[in-house]
Structures are given as C-alpha cells and as structure tokens.
Amino acid sequence: MIDKSNLFKVPNSNSNDAKIKKVVYEIDKSFFEKFKKDSTNKEYLCICSGGTTSGCAKDNYITVDLRKNYNQIKFDKKTGIINIGGGVLMDDLLKNLDEFNRTFPIGLSTLPGIGYILTGGISPLSRRYGLAIDSVISVKGFFGNGEYFSLNEEKIIEEKELKIMEGIKGAAPFFTIITEIGLKTFKSYPIKIFEGFINKNELEELIIKSEEFPQT
Ligand SMILES: Cc1cc2nc3c(=O)[nH]c(=O)nc-3n(C[C@H](O)[C@H](O)[C@H](O)COP(=O)(O)OP(=O)(O)OC[C@H]3O[C@@H](n4cnc5c(N)ncnc54)[C@H](O)[C@@H]3O)c2cc1C
Fold first, then answer.
1. Quick one: pLDDT band at residue 216, thresholds 50, 70, 90?
2. What residue's CA is closest to ligand 1, atom 8?
3. Could you identify the atom of ligand 1 that is nearest to the CA of residue 113?
C-alpha cells in the first residue's frame, strides 16, 4: 500500500513529491530474508543518504533512509582516519573534522551525503587530494543479495576481496548499500579567497592560468 502521509522529507523536491511505498530505517540480514524465501517477491529500493538527488525516492519504491540510524562519526586522532555512517552529510563531516584541524575534499556544497563520495566526488581540493572516493580505505554494508561485507584496504589479502573493493570504489551505488566508510583526512590549512568582477575574456585567461598552478 502506498504511504500517502509522506513524512519523508529531503532537500531534493522531486524526491519529496514521490509517492514512496515505505521508508526503512534499519538494514540487516532479516531485511533481505523475505525476498530470498520467495523469488517472486521483488522490490525496488532507493537509498537515501543526503537526499539531494531524485534517486533517493521514487513512486512505488521502498526507500532505505540512512540518515536516522547511520549518522555516526568517529575520528581517530592517531591514524587521522574518520569512520562515518552511510547517512552522514558532508556538512557534519567537515564540522567534526574542523575540531581536529583536519579536512576532507568535499564538493561545492555541504548538503550532499555519502552519495557524493560514492559517486566519485570532485572537489575544489581534488587537484591536491584526488577524488573523494580515492580517500576511502574501508567499507561496510550489504550487497543486493543481502550478503554482509566489511573490507579494509590495509587488511585485504585475497584477490577476490581486492576486486570487490575496486568494484565498490567505482560503482558502489549500483550493487551495494553502504552503511559505513572509513576515510583518510588531511591537515586543514587556511584558504585565501580573492573576489572581484571579471569579463568573459579575463575568465578564460584565469582558467588557463589556474590550470598551470602548482598542485599545492
Ligand atoms: C548543491 C549541490 C552541489 C554539488 N556539488 C558537487 C561537487 O562539487 N562535486 C561533485 O562531485 N558532486 C557534486 N554534487 C553532486 C552530488 O555529489 C551527487 O548528486 C551525490 O550523489 C549526492 O549524494 P546524496 O547522498 O546527497 O544523494 P542521495 O539522493 O541521498 O543519494 C543519491 C544516490 O546515491 C547512492 N547512494 C547514496 N548513499 C548510498 C549508500 N550509503 N550506499 C549505496 N548507495 C548510496 C544511491 O544510488 C542514491 O540513489 C552536488 C550536488 C548538489 C545538490
């Protein structure tokens, strides 16, 4: 039955309007059991992390909303690694890191969730630190068939695990529900911002100049 009350609220207005079938807040093995028992019982799932895209909720789909129960953030001062839940917003990630004078290459907005990281994540800091996905060092979650996984790049010994990790780092949203990721973080430096009005030609000139900037 379609839940018309639509208590599900996200930043993306198309998703807000979706007539979703159900919202699920907890994901574990039992969630997949009913589909395993009866192969004709098929459901289409949407995953919601930051809820900034139209992919986080659709008419007649079940949404797995990770924002409520997967919003944990834990920073390890010794290693500089931060572990975050699948429903953490980039805003909260940065705010937490700021307390330790650390940073992460988020994109132009603080609104997105970990969908930003899992889809690559191009940041104004990418020239120096790479794509957001390059900083992922561990992942936990479920494959579409309900199988649980927990992988850490530094502890991988089997070829099969390495291949899975590579797959996740390229295409996680296509075959997994990620409940937690571990990320490398970087020392935070002050940024100098120059503001001014420029014409089209000057903009072209500046773009070419910036391409020649040193990586730092
Ligand atoms: C204002 C704004 C500015 C942006 N700027 C940039 C930018 O500078 N650089 C850049 O690279 N991108 C940028 N983006 C794009 C943004 O990174 C992507 O749209 C991203 O997918 C949004 O993530 P989300 O978690 O908010 O989305 P959601 O709508 O919650 O999720 C989008 C999709 O991501 C997948 N997904 C999310 N979480 C999980 C999970 N835990 N496990 C498995 N799959 C998951 C699902 O397929 C889901 O359908 C911007 C977006 C906005 C709205």
1. low
2. 107
3. 25
Write out the two tokens for 184: 């490398």
pTM (predicted TM-score)? 0.92
Domains of the chain: 13-65 (no CATH), 73-187 (3.30.465.10)
Is 50 a pocket residue for ligand 1 (Cβ < 6 Å)? Answer: yes
Retrieve residue 208's tokens.
Answer: 């070419």
Q: Is the CB of 49 under 6 A from ligand 1?
A: yes
Residue type for position 14: N
Distance 10 CA to ligand 1 centre (A): 12
Distance 115 CA to ligand 1 centre (A): 4
| pLDDT tens by residue, 59-85 | 999 999 999 999 999 999 999 999 999
35: helix, coil or strand? helix
What is the distance between the alpha carbons of residues 128 and 130, in angstroms, rounded to a whole number?
6
